[in-house]
Amino acid sequence: MSEHLRAALRLASDGLPVLPLRRGKVPFGNCRTCARNMCGGRPNMKTPGPCTCPRPCHAWAAATADPHTLNSPQWATAWRTAAAVAYHPGGAGVTVVDLDNAEAIAWAHATLPATRTVATTRGEHWIYQGAMQSVNAVRPGVDIKSLMSYARWLGSGTGTTAALPAVVRALAVREPSPARRAPQTATVPFTGQSGACPHRTPAYLDRGLAMAVQRITEASSAVHATVYRTFLAVLSTHGRCGCLTDTHVTRLFTAAQAKGETVRHCTDAWTNARTALGL
């Protein structure tokens, strides 16, 4: 049994969902069945655990506290070549504020309440009790790792774990990107467009949005491409008259995120679709 597997089993016995990392501190790649998310991934990627594949696929979503899975033959190769052990903070009910340099650490001491601290190669992990969305680069040298993310296990650290403070939650709240800010209200058209809305009833738009959400939700493969094509279809029909609002866009983004897409990918897909249509 490798050193990393022993450590993983010890952590799992305390209820911590863990997974192996290869060189470079990154998860093992998906197997051929799961490559490019062809398997469709886990239906709801907001909870830890593998998809139907028994191998350590899908990065953070493979994290598990089940000793039988960790000891299974399908995970054996990964543990033999593993360079480190990681865990899913959100699955453990905690949030890691990853401070990557001395300046970030100084900011944390001046801004955040004291909590359990773990030394890293270049900085520190400040760990709070409570889960939230994960966001990278909330400020220079600071990442938030919790739901749908993983963090390297570097020891239990020192200090007492404090409750997740509002100041940390506030770091994840950002101004909407231009791609999501563009559609404001039903009376404000996209830039460069004018004229009355050609759709005779709101039901036309509602049906279109419902069909788009269903298309994304039912995608069993090629999720990235499905999201982009769906956004493109919605914008090609409703993007020029100004009837799309932030509520409509959020509905589409929520459906995509439920399939495992990140906010960044949703924003990029929306922007690329608008660009392709000249909006």
Describe this entry's structure for a reader.
By secondary structure, this protein is α+β, with helices and mostly antiparallel strands. It has ten helices and ten strands. The strands form two sheets. Strands 4, 5, 6, 7, 8 and 10 form a six-stranded mixed sheet that branches. Strands 2-1-3-9 form a four-stranded antiparallel sheet, covered by helices on one side. Helix 7 runs antiparallel to helix 8 and helix 8 crosses helix 10. It is globular. The N and C termini lie far apart (58 Å). About 8% of the residues have low confidence.
What structural keywords apply?
single chain; 279 residues; alpha+beta; 6-stranded mixed sheet; 4-stranded antiparallel sheet; 37% helix
User: Spans with pLDDT under 50 lasting ≥5 residues?
Assistant: 175-195
Sheet with the most strands, sense and barrel status:
6 strands, mixed
Structural class: alpha+beta
Strand content: 5-15%
Number of strands: 10
Query: Level of helix content?
Result: 25-40%
The number of helices is 10
